[in-house]
Design goal:
The protein has about 350 residues and is an alpha/beta fold. The protein has one domain: NAD(P)-binding Rossmann-like Domain (Rossmann fold), CATH 3.40.50. Helix content is about 40%, strand content about 15%. It has 13 helices and 14 strands. Strands 3-4-2-1-5-6-7-12 form an 8-stranded mixed beta sheet, with helices on both faces. A two-stranded parallel sheet has the order 8-11. α9 packs across α11 and α11 packs across α13. The longest helix has 21 residues. The two termini are about 35 Å apart. Bound molecules: nicotinamide-adenine-dinucleotide. Nicotinamide-adenine-dinucleotide (NAD) binds next to α1 and α7. The site of nicotinamide-adenine-dinucleotide (NAD) has 28 residues, from α1 and α7.
Length: about 350
């Protein structure tokens, strides 16, 4: 299968690209590589891991001017990468015209709750305008198998209980980021209804693992602990998260990609559906910090702080729908996942200690 993976330089995008390549799919990755400093360092290192060592050069003016040349992977003839913004209404259709995809995995987005309050427009541009541009391309170029990242944040601060997909109907997002993801689900459903695009929204729950995002707790905390700096513990540690190891996210996503939505099995006969992908095993923040301390061999200095606006107290996935359709239940528990994360963190591969 020939698959477009957007956000391929991102944390989850890199892992999904690797997995699809390893099983023999052809993958075209795109990413706008937004950001600088360590955010960009990590993105270019992830691309190097996929066989694209020169991505940083693409950011130079010359590339920007005639930016539609793809960089081929040095490891695999079945992977190439375009520097492209999914909201670009000239470039994205041109890539679709050239490449003729059979399926799309949309992971490109501004991610993260806290930063969405600082730069809401960037979230709307990437997460809403970008998704609409992508769906327009799918419509024009007749790509009818689309999976796209939503988020557990669409459930808002719903309480300490396992959440089923239908619960979102009675929950309100409490951050700009969450609102963009809920809007994505509604827009994708409209495209499914109007144009028959078979689309699946993926509500990921707090993803962690090797090559993780530098703005998320596992990387933030690991780097602070490793460098003897204090960590910020919000809501005085009274937070629970359904931490999900990235390999489980990849497996769940690819199984759903392989089982496209069918109108007669979806609500209202519209070939759109959403699934939770989470570990179903929420853990208190303190336990998570203890596991990091154990695996990094150092004690954390904790700075206790109040709750942050836009944050939620608990996340907890019910994944029975995913299991019923695909037979897959995420199974990497936190002690094993943190062990694997810490092993990577301490290794030479990690560019951001
Ligand atoms: N990591 C998590 O815990 C988590 C949880 C829920 C949902 N998600 C969603 O999963 C997806 C992947 O998340 P991630 O953690 O890998 O984030 P990430 O930031 O590591 O990856 C996203 C990638 O998309 C790229 N991007 C952003 N806007 C773009 C645009 N307009 N055009 C092209 N590329 C663009 C970024 O440069 C980045 O490389 C996102 O949609 C995110 O909202 C992630």
């Amino acid at each position: 299968m020939k698959v477009l993976v957007t956000g391929a330089a991102g944390f989850i995008g890199m892992h999904i690209t690797k997995y699809l390549l390893s099983r023999g799919d052809t993958v075209v990755g795109i990413d706008n590589l937004w950001g600088d400093g360590e955010i960009l360092t990590l993105k270019t290192a992830r691309l190097a891991e996929l066989g694209i060592p020169d991505a940083a050069e693409m950011l130079e003016e010359k590339w920007r001017d005639d930016n539609l040349s793809a960089l081929p992977s040095r490891f695999r003839s079945t992977f190439r990468f375009y520097l492209c913004d999914i909201a670009d209404r000239m470039a994205l259709p041109e890539i679709f015209r050239r490449e003729r995809f059979e399926a799309v995995v949309n992971l490109a987005a501004r991610a993260g709750v806290r930063a969405s309050a600082e730069d809401p427009q960037a979230y709307v541009d990437s997460n809403i305008s970008g998704l609409v541009n992508l769906l327009e391309c799918c419509r024009d170029f007749k790509v009818t198998n689309v999976v796209y990242a939503s988020s557990s944040s669409v459930y808002g601060d719903a309480g300490d209980r396992p959440l089923r997909e239908a619960d979102a109907a009675t929950c309100d997002p409490v951050s700009i980021y969450a609102a963009t993801k809920r809007a994505d689900e509604m827009l994708a459903r409209c495209y499914s209804q109007m144009y028959g695009i078979r689309a699946t929204g993926l509500r990921f729950f707090t993803v962690y693992g090797p090559w993780g995002r530098p703005d998320m707790a596992p990387m933030l905390f690991a780097r602070a602990i490793y460098n003897d700096r204090p960590i910020k513990v919000f809501n005085h540690g009274d937070l629970k998260r359904d931490f999900t190891f990235v390999d489980d996210i990849v497996e769940g996503t690819v199984r759903l990609l392989d089982t496209p939505a069918e109108a007669d099995k979806c609500d209202g006969g519209i070939p759109h559906r959403v699934f939770n992908i989470g570990c179903c095993n929420p853990v208190m923040l303190g336990e998570f910090i203890s596991l990091l301390e154990k695996n990094l061999g150092k004690k954390a200095q904790k700075e206790m702080l109040p709750m942050q606006p836009g944050d939620v107290h608990h996340t907890w996935a019910d994944t029975s729908a995913l299991q019923a359709l695909t037979g897959f239940k995420p199974g990497v528990l936190l002690p094993e996942g943190i062990r694997r994360f810490a092993e990577w963190f301490l290794s030479e591969k990690n560019p951001l200690k």
